[in-house]
Amino acid sequence: MSRLLRIALLIPALAAFSFATVTVSSPGNGSVVGSPVRYLATSTTGCSKGVASMGVYVDNRLVYVANGTTLNASVSVAPGSHHTVVEEWDYCGGASYTPVAITVNAQAGVWVTSPTNHSSVVSPVNYAATATTTCARGVASMGIYVNNQLNFVSSGAKLNTALALTPGTYDTVVQEWDYCGGSTFQHEQVTVGGSVFKNLQASGGWSAYGEFPPIYNTCSNCGPGVTWSMNQGVTSPSLTGKAAKFSLGGTTPYADVLWTNPLIGDFSSQGLPDPGHTIIPKLHGFTYDIYFYSSSFELSQVLEFDINQYFNYLGFTWGNQCRVAGGHEFDIWDNVNWKWVPTGVPCNPVNNSWNHLTLQVQRTWDNQLLYHSITLNGVTRVIDRYFPPFSVNNWYGVTANYQMDGNYKQSPYSVVVDKFNLIYW
User: Fold this and answer.
1) In a domain, 14, yes or no
2) Which residues span the domain enclosing 73?
3) Are both 208 and 226 inside the same structural domain?
4) Which of 23, 158, 178, 271 is buried most deeply by CB count within 10 Å?
5) How far is it, in rounded angstroms, from Cα 318 to Cα 372?
6) End-to-end CA separation in angstroms for the chain
7) Residue 7 falls within a domain, yes or no?
């Protein structure tokens, strides 16, 4: 993974610092409350440009964001003790926060931890909820209604899924049904939005680098040991008529090819250089959404899908790899110890079929990397693993990567990519 840093062109810049405060009037620190929990807060900053936004974290997960210097939100929180944080982000790249410990009273009902009511979200929308009941036999099932239409049902007292919703405002309901014939529900109005880079496979700005084992330093002209190509505008197979075909070959076993695209910040390929550093420091969530197709997945050792964010001397690499010949399992990247960590989530892409992968990650209030969920071909598995960032020179940027690894024979193979979107907020 060190090659991700080696290819970064690190440009010195000045970090912005400011004095700021976050004043939380509700709930009180250490208080016992009911759900939903009412959060009322205001903020100030020494940044001459002012406060950009405020947010609420519950147990290290960002659950609500509002623009401006005030926050007024009702947040559904499950019974029990929780570490919550109210944070502000200013236009100079600074931030401050106030921790608020709460205990939520146990009661019968539905608790939706994601999304929060009246929140702005991006698609696919992650729904996470739990339920309790006074019925001695327990909760039978839970479901989600979208604009009065039942969209999803699962068994038991926990629900965690991702719904693909087009931009717009929705009245959604999370409901539980118990074995005694009873039912409770929770309304969640959501507005689907966010910013998105669409069809990155058809975009300009891609650079490719070869890598040789065992050190995996990058090279641009690597000789016959590792070869590659990227062909854009592929119409068959394709979902949009503008797919891209990525190919790997060569003579050195286990050699890799990394494709990377700088999206925001220094060297942006998307027209977002962010010279005032007003965009990148405020980004807290990313959704990596991609369709990929091959007739020979069994020849791939690994397929890798990465998101990188750099600012204020901090580096965040959300690395996700699908070990195909390597064991049919997803791994995630440990930024500090520089190693892959198995997730237990299976990865079995289907030959001669479009496979749909969605990765949801976040940067937490205290600058930890959160790997939230992996969805492959409609099956969502929640990871919720945290890792610290690493230290880098003060380069500001957001990049998206795609990588293919060779097997023990360096067997040549190709993967067609389409509808490659990166959502950020």
Assistant:
1) no
2) 20-121+123-193
3) yes
4) 178
5) 11
6) 25
7) no
Do 277 and 48 contact (CB within 8 A), yes or no?
Answer: no
Does residue 3 belong to any structural domain of this protein?
no
Out of 145, 171, 193, pick the residue that ends a domain: 193
Contact residues for 163 (Cβ-Cβ < 8 A; gap 6+)? 123, 124, 125, 127, 144, 146, 151, 152
% of the chain beyond a pLDDT of 90: 67
pLDDT over 90 at 107, yes or no: no
pLDDT at 388: 95
Across the range 273-283, mean pLDDT stands at 92
Total structural domains in the chain? 2
CA 200-115-309 angle, to 5 degrees, is 40
Q: What is the pLDDT of residue 164?
A: 78
- pTM of the predicted protein model: 0.71
Report whether 57 contacts 63 (CB < 8 A).
yes
Task: Say which CATH number the domain at 36 has.
Answer: 2.60.40.10
- What torsion, rounded to 10 degrees, do the Cα atoms 265, 290, 314, 17 define? 50
Indicate if the pLDDT at residue 134 is higher than 90. no
124 in Cβ contact with 375 (< 8 Å): yes
What pLDDT score does 14 carry?
30
Whether 383 and 337 share a structural domain:
yes
Work out the average pLDDT over 41-61: 92
If pLDDT is split at 50, 70 and 90, which confidence band does 9 have?
Answer: very low
Q: Per-residue pLDDT tens for 218-260?
A: 999 999 999 999 999 999 999 999 999 999 999 999 999 999 9
- Domain boundary pick from 170, 193, 216: 193
Q: Are residues 180 and 260 in the same domain?
A: no
Does residue 5 form part of some domain? no
pLDDT at 3: 41
**Computed over its alpha carbons, how large is the radius of gyration of the chain?**
22
Q: Domain check: are 134 and 256 in the same one?
A: no
